[in-house]
Amino acid sequence: MAIVTMKRLTLLAMSADKERIFDELARSQSVQLKRSADIDNCFSVSQSLAVEKVAEKSARVEEAIRYVTEMAEAENARQRDKSKQVAIPKNSFARPRSEVDFDYFLSFGSHAEIIDCCIDELFKLRDELSQFEAKRASFVARHDELSLLTKLPHPTTWYKNTDSAIVQLSTVPTSELERLNALVSEYETVNCEVVDDSGSMAVVVVVAHKSDSEFFEKAVALGLNKCAVECDLVPSVALENVCGHIVDTNSEIAGLRHAIACHAKEIPTWKIYVDYLELQNKKLMADGELQQTASTFVLEAFYPAEAEARVEQSIRSVTNDVVLTFDEIGEEEFAPTLIRSNKLVKPFEFVTNAYSSPDYHEIDPNPVMAVFYFIIFGLMVADIGYGLLLLAAGLFVSFAIKQSTGIKTMLQLFGICGVSAIIVGALFGSFFSYSLYPGVIPDPAGYPMVMMIISLMFGVIHIIAGIGCNMAVKIKHKQVLAAWLADFPWIIVFFAFILAIFNAALDMAAYEPYYVLKLPTVVSQIALYVCLAALAVAIVCAGLGTKGFLGKAMKSFGSAYGIINYFSDIMSYIRVFGLMLSSAIMGTVINTLAEMIMGGGGVGYVLAAIVLIFAHMFNLVMGILSVYIHNGRLQYVEFFGKFYTGDGALFTPFGSDTRYTLVK
User: How far apart are the first and last CA of the chain?
Assistant: First the structure.
């Protein structure tokens, strides 16, 4: 369990072998390419246009995948007969990504022309569908216009002015007809005939002598508007024609939608094509970072030292006309970070990487962090029942999901930590917040100071571990004297401080069974003197390695002032007690509510069971979210703050970061 030693590869080969070397390096899954250092009389070739072209093609394929998926889902929603629904290929829960052989994946370029033609056909269908949908929209709009005029006995063009009269086909709100007729009665040469008043808008024909044209100006105030629909046929006949066009257009649209949805069977192939295109893009970008001559090129890459033989074999399987140099990584030289952990610690890398991956030149924090994350998780959850549920979830995904995914890693993490919740829950005697027996640790509701003191003392131990890790970092960088004289005294300070206040803490806890743990008074007194002496050494020696008296004095002052920061860090561990107590009280409330419901008998038992199941699941989920956040915060601030720099970059083998496909 450590950061794997990396080395740097420098390769000089013929340009004719470049593509095959790229392919074999991708197959090996053992190298991460880097920009080659500048070399005299060499040049680099910009591949930006080619990269952009491939990226556009990849985006086009992804657009096709999204569009076909949406259309197929919509088609299935419209089609109630399941036997006629379109099959949408989906990967299984166990294997979220399609698994393909590397040789098949590498040769996928031979399918490119067929896939591109298929996608071109798809987008032609999409354009055709858009045209028919636009036609249908115009027909529907025409239908809405004509539907008001179905009782009109003549075409709308029949209603036109004469030499002496104004003839106007109009619409008016039905509620205004009475007022309109009253207005008409004021004019001797104005006549209004109602054609249809069955809807909210009435259709009327108004005939007026040209001398009474002011009538129309007054009628506008009542909502009278000239009908703008032009129709050379009787509207009822024209409406029948439009309905026929709508039926025909709907039929065309349905056929196009089905044809588009049937492309869903191509989605798995298209997804492989996307990953293939992205690999080609990575090759182009890598090509742009090489140093080249007219016939040769220089490539540089990082690789794990343990994989050196495999890397060399992969390259020489392509050509022997190559010069290889394998170099160690310098103390100040960048290298990507590859962490090798066992199966128990591996899920905890998820927590560290969420903060920042380790720098290659520092120590791997995961083995130590995993232990404390595990314990703090158990202290916060502290229930056998909840721990069993988390353990079951972790075991389920470990066996059910065959590929590595984020959800699998997280649930495995919770499953491992569920064991801690079971252990701590057993110390409390708590099973879904029911007390099974008097626990080693008393009920925090009755003796809150006990759990609070345990949380604070555990926080001190966690901080001591952080200081110990800082010592390991300094020793790794050959700062042995500073590690033992500036950091180790702080460990003595904290251990001695715990012994010095141990009896006082027991008195504060006021839990009689723990009184047997009291130390002799002389031990507490000696521990206090040791604490003060170690503190003095830590402050005086804080400036080791700093030049000048003023620099050393400032370092010592900063170390003394750091006591306040340490106190603040220790107080942060009260959150362990707070989260554990809130979850326990919430569980107790749930149990009490269920008991009240059970008092009704009969149906009450069923309702109580439902309340217990769903309420405890809600309490567990909400509790886990809080535990994940606050436990991580204690690691990131109180623990990592003592020694961890982070800002590393995880080792990503060339060609390994596919999105849809798992290449074997």
Answer: 26
Question: Which residues in 120-267 belong to E strands, given as ranges?
Answer: 165-173, 190-196, 201-209, 225-226
Instruction: For strands 98-100 and 661-663, give the pairing.
Output: parallel
Q: Count of CB atoms within 10 A of residue 79's CB?
A: 15
The closest of 346, 348, 411 to 93, measured between CA atoms, is 411
Token pair of 590 as six digits: 């749930």
What is Dmax (Cα atoms) for the chain?
A: 126
Residues present in the chain in total: 664
Out of 84-88, 466-470, 562-566, the most confident range is 466-470
- pLDDT tens-digit map of 407-465: 999 999 999 999 999 999 999 999 999 999 888 998 887 888 999 999 999 999 999 99
Q: Is 597 helix (H, G, I), strand (E, B) or coil?
A: helix
Q: How many Å is the Cα radius of gyration of the chain?
A: 39
Q: Which of 279, 256, 311 is nearest to 122 (CA)?
A: 256
Beta bridge partner(s), residue 339? 3
Nearest alpha carbon to residue 490 among 514, 515, 467: 467
Q: Taking Cα atoms as reference points, which of 418, 367, 410 lies closest to residue 391? A: 418
User: What is the per-residue pLDDT for 477?
Assistant: 87
Which ranges of 328-383 does DSSP label H, i.e. alpha helix?
349-355, 366-381
Q: What is the pTM of this model?
A: 0.85
Task: Identify the bridge partners of residue 190 per DSSP, sorted by sequence position.
Answer: 208
Read off the tokens for 247: 């039926």
Task: Give the pLDDT band (50/70/90) at residue 586.
Answer: very high
What distance in Å separates the CA atoms of residue 117 and residue 418, rounded to the nearest whole number?
53
Distance CA 6, CA 440 (A): 48
Q: Which of 626, 620, 616 is nearest to 589 (CA)?
A: 616
- Tally Cβ neighbours within 10 Å of residue 416: 23
Contact 579, 626 (CB under 8 A): yes
Q: What is the spatial distance between Cα 580 and Cα 444, in angstroms, rounded to a whole number? A: 9
* 3-class secondary structure, 531: helix
Q: Are 25 and 301 a contacting pair, CB within 8 Å? A: yes
**What residue type is 123 in one-letter code?**
F
| Alpha carbon distances (Å) from 14 to 20, 295, 298 | 11, 6, 9
Continuous segment of H or E residues that includes residue 99: strand 98-100
Lookup: tokens for 393? 């979830």
Beta-strand pair 430-431/434-435: antiparallel
Specify the DSSP element, H or E, that contains 33: strand 32-34
How sure is the predictor about 606, in pLDDT bands with cuts at 50, 70 and 90?
confident
Those residues with Cβ within 8 angstroms of residue 1's Cβ, 6 or more apart along the chain or in another chain? 340, 341, 342, 345, 364, 366, 367
Contact 628, 452 (CB under 8 A): no
Residue identified by tokens 């009450």 is 604
| Phi, psi at 206, each rounded to 5° | -110, 130
* Percent of the chain clearing pLDDT 70 (strictly above): 99
Asked if 403 and 663 touch (Cβ cutoff 8 Å), the reply is no
Per DSSP, helices labelled H in 93-198 are 102-106, 112-146, 177-184
**E-strand stretches of 313-421:** 322-328, 339-340
Q: Are 183 and 219 in contact (CB under 8 A)?
A: yes
The DSSP line for 606-629 is: HHHHHHHHHHHHHHHHHHHHHHHH
